[in-house]
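hiii so my PI (J.) wants the whole complex modelled not just the main chain, which honestly fair. so below is everything: two entries, each one labled with what it is. i double checked the lines twice but i was tired so who knows lol
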Amino acid sequence: MPGDTAIATVCLSGTLEDKLAAAAAAGFHGVEIFENDLIASRRSPSEIRRLCADLGLTIDLYQPFRDFEAVPPDLLRANLRRARRKFDLMAELGADTVLVCSSVSPDAVDDDELAAAQLRELAELAGERGIRVAYEALAWGRFVNTYEHAWRIVRRADHPALGVCLDSFHILSRRSDPRAIRTIPGEKIFFLQLADAPLLDMDVLHWSRHHRLFPGQGAFDLTAFTGHVVAAGYLGPLSLEVFNDVFRQADPRPAAVDAMRSLVALRESVGVLELPEAPRLDGHAFAELAVPGTVLADLGFAHVGTHRSKPVQLWQQGSARLLVNEAAEDGTISALGLISANPAGSARRAESLLAPVLPREHGPGEADLSAVAAPDGTEIFFCGGDGWLQDFVPTRAVQSGAGITGIDHVALTQPFDHFDEATLFYRSVLGLRPDPVSEFAAPFGLVRSRAVGDRDVRLTLDSALVRRGEWAPGVPSPQHVALTCDDALAVARALREAGAPLLEIPGNYYDDLEARFDLPFAARLRENSVLYDRDEDGEFLHFCTELVGSRVFFEVVQRIGGYRGYGVVNTPVYMTAHRERRLSLAGVE
Amino acid sequence: MPGDTAIATVCLSGTLEDKLAAAAAAGFHGVEIFENDLIASRRSPSEIRRLCADLGLTIDLYQPFRDFEAVPPDLLRANLRRARRKFDLMAELGADTVLVCSSVSPDAVDDDELAAAQLRELAELAGERGIRVAYEALAWGRFVNTYEHAWRIVRRADHPALGVCLDSFHILSRRSDPRAIRTIPGEKIFFLQLADAPLLDMDVLHWSRHHRLFPGQGAFDLTAFTGHVVAAGYLGPLSLEVFNDVFRQADPRPAAVDAMRSLVALRESVGVLELPEAPRLDGHAFAELAVPGTVLADLGFAHVGTHRSKPVQLWQQGSARLLVNEAAEDGTISALGLISANPAGSARRAESLLAPVLPREHGPGEADLSAVAAPDGTEIFFCGGDGWLQDFVPTRAVQSGAGITGIDHVALTQPFDHFDEATLFYRSVLGLRPDPVSEFAAPFGLVRSRAVGDRDVRLTLDSALVRRGEWAPGVPSPQHVALTCDDALAVARALREAGAPLLEIPGNYYDDLEARFDLPFAARLRENSVLYDRDEDGEFLHFCTELVGSRVFFEVVQRIGGYRGYGVVNTPVYMTAHRERRLSLAGVE
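here's the output for the full assembly
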């Protein structure tokens, strides 16, 4: 069934048993068993068969069988001998389909007739045992490297036990046109392997073996691709085969959930699964974090409410609302409130996409907010309008304010292993559009950054490009809430005069800025430690506070015109300033 | 002077101050200051100048100035304005050479005449202030992307303050022939930047920005390249400019030492520096580790001596000698003894290549062994013949033995940040030839592996391809000593009968082996849990013990014919078996 889901064991980390347990827990129907995983296992094939049965998993594919076809007769004999052994093993395993990859062997010859005849012989051997042979063109196959070519050979061999295996990576990485898939009879498509990938300009073998991603995490159009396969009448499972350096060493349990989420979203986009739609998100309702209230007062926020039953204060300035959770871990952004056009609908969609739904804890008469956990543990609350404010007993504080008007975005540093998972989560669960990944050199290593969302709700996701070791500090790096204002220069001046802990930016930054641009307000940027960026559509002024918790700070931003970015070019500058400020507070010269 | 050494701040991690301190401590004469490092620094250019002077560093280059030449007149005016500001800054900084990279700007035009005229104008401006402009062809420059082209433009501009900057990466990555460098007058080569790199088939910009290495760590022939530049009469420093994802986040102090070692070795190979030669190494004298003596007895070793003054036992079988250090940390290989044709010469060479010389601790009448520390902390002792054995009081133990004859190799798992450094260390300090890097999929992530040495002394260096997080176990991974024998099947059987803790290899491994090869002794391999590999020149039989310390085990190998490898294809199998054995001992199902 194209509704069924499978995953190749090579996608996940650990022993075969670790992988099978993770796949079953994430709800997969079946697995492709990668030969090397079986070879290293202390369980015999029949024991693995029982284990899979106990876990509710079918074994949909045994893979791969390599370098079989278009060889001289003596090699064919050895290959058939090898195949017989593997077919015996598959019988024990209870797997009825074997993947045969197009040859990369120096012994193979460029002869479709011979390839077809030999594959026919293999299919005959397989068919006798109730096994099907799925022939796949590797993108780097020696003579056969397109799916059209593999299909021509299968058609020529014309055996009921021989069909093709289609792999989205091998097809899309070569920029092959996938539309001709519709011309292959569905029953001759024996298997479908799915992988996404970022667009990289490198050797396709290296790209394939290291950088594949789950559907929705990369740049391939898997919706269109899978649509062609479904339209052809394919009836087998949608199966993931993703070689990825990070997934290979990450905890397989969340990785399997991430994998399953990618298939749920793909099945929705292809139209073989219906999910609750993602309701429109209209803005940030609040951010909850643990910082001293005095810092918020210095920034012009007023303490306007106290939660009826929890140790939580509501602080407000303009439409920017911050919750200070006195019980939360120092310095983390623990929760985000997002304004949803349909909070219950947002929660239903999240749940259908495997987001952990958080237990609802609310006193009598308090708002019943739905919440789910993002991959990094941040709690996402769905708020409908301002009803949730009634949970706070108003104080008599008067809001004067320093010119801050709302929340622009929230920057969530992602754990190394969860960067790609986070993109897929926010894209599929919340319907936020991801920007391309950008990269910058921070003082202690390269950082990847990716924004999701649009003008109403914006999040930025950052992670180190190489997981850092002991030397590089700031692991995990600080997170921040970026607030908006209409006049960054005036707000910065007012806040500094009021004693807010604003971060000093070094003069060298302004010397360079003045060399690059002829700005009439350059002196005022320097005076107020305000950073500057521009793009084709507008300008961006922004400044930061010092770190106000162990790993959190505030940014204040002003967008002029249609500026769409986040001032990433300036991030290394304020990261260095944060580092030096912290060293100087610690008394280190 | 081509004897002088410099390093670009972009090679190292941290703040500008961290980088300068590390460069000075490693003995560099000068630095190239990367603009972004200065911009983020709280120190003004004149303060940086003073800091460098205090550290004994000259500022040899300010870099980079981009997208200057071959532009329309209004853009030229803006670029000259920018240049004036940067020249002012350089005056403050005390830097007299600026790097100008060939343009990648969409505003540039393909007009050598215009490029030369505008660079001449820039040089005129620079010359007035005593500044020199070094023009460099980026490998991905829009119109100018070869050194020959950059030199044609410089020659056409014909200004004393304009010369070329040569960068080995930009030249060798494009497979340009470097021999024509000899035709450039030495005084017109204003600067030389050196970087090595592995051969990668990818977009050259990505290759350059992420994967450069220090000379001697990659695949480029930097000796020939640098030889051409020296022959041309270049008189400036040899300066490193290496963009590398790992070095960017690693402790800059050892990284700077590694960098300096690469230049010392390069200067030797080019013939501008004389070092003590690396004496011939004739074999492994011993390996020192912390394991229970009972394990060695089970493996057929005899306790043949006790150190006169230290808590160290000498165990021997055939010519394999192991030192058991009862005081050492459980499970590490703490030291290697290598037989040197000239131990004092080995130590002198090591010292000249910045290897930390270990303090000599020996009682009266004991051998005075020279020793140095490898990058991972392993102590390397240089032994001349068997004299060192006299430090051990012989026991009356009788050697019977189980057929083990010597040490084949020692496998040292490398800390993630030090993999490339380790290669350079063993190659330059000990004169061991490195094999190419291989890669394999271990159960908990990809592993890079590289062997160094030849038939007399062999070491293998392994490291995770992606630094592992909390989930993947075995961080750091086990190390092992590989012992030789003449008949692995017989030795395995004898050891197992004697109760040695040999590792069981799963039956699935042998099913696969029998499918791949038709081996007459297949059943005996299976019976004795012996692994098998072959290459063009021979065969390899090997088996492992269980882990006998927290992170150490023994391997026993038999090389047949000219087999040159290390059975890496089987490593994932025994790694999984080690893992499962450990779980089963811990009572985890």
